[in-house]
Amino acid sequence: MTARTWLAGPHEAEHVANLLIAFRNHFEEDWPSDNAMLAGVERVMEDRNADFLLGAPHDDAPPAAVAQLRYRFGIWRAGTECLLEDLFVREDARGTGLGRAMMEAVVARAHERGARLLELDTHEDNAPALALYASFGLTPERVPGGPRRLFLRGRLDEE
User: Fold this and answer.
1) Angle at which helices 13-26 and 34-45 pack, to 10 degrees?
2) Which residues contact 87 (CB under 8 A, 6 or more apart)?
3) Over the Cα atoms of the chain, what is R_g?
4) Has residue 155 been placed in a domain?
5) How far from chain centre, in Å, is Cα 105?
6) CA–CA separation, 105 and 53 (whole Å)
7) Buried-most residue among 23, 66, 122, 130 (CB within 10 A)?
8) pTM of the prediction?
């Protein structure tokens, strides 16, 4: 079976919020509250400089992955930059290729939006994520003053 990904629409705000709540819970956090998370998702969905992508391990499965993308104009790139703010795959969907499918969708969507650079950050101990990001040409840099967090970036435009 093949993983599928899609651009989330406003009618899918609850799916997005539930996956972000699972991500929050993964870090053993309790803020923002569930209600605040849904309200935040709805607000971000109204922002033309942001996208949510959803993913499922196969056509008949419910959403099991989410990515949050933000876009901004970068003076030093003379073009749009994309920040992958969140990427989360539910534990029961890991190992299905969904993470790779989500990254492919992230890169494709960033290209569609004219992004010339993709940036994200992750924890230095997250070896599976680091390997996935490296396979997309993203290279890590230590975040100044950010213990154990790595900042990754990769060009999307041709040299």
Assistant:
1) 130
2) 65, 66, 67, 68, 99, 102, 103, 106, 120, 129
3) 15
4) no
5) 10
6) 8
7) 66
8) 0.91
Boundaries of domain holding 97: 4-117
Predicted confidence band of residue 159 (pLDDT cuts 50, 70, 90): very low
Which has the closest alpha carbon to 16: 60, 48, 50?
A: 50
Residue 88: inside a domain = yes
Pull the structure tokens for residue 119: 């940036």
CATH code, 86: 3.40.630.30
Q: Which two tokens stand for residue 100?
A: 């790779």
Instruction: Tell me which residue has tokens 């993709």.
Output: 118
> What are the pLDDT digits (tens) for 14-37?
999 999 999 999 989 999 999 999
Q: State residue 143 phi and psi, 5-degree precision.
A: -75, 120
The 10s digit of each residue's pLDDT in 105-124 is 999 999 999 999 999 988 88
Domain count, the chain: 1
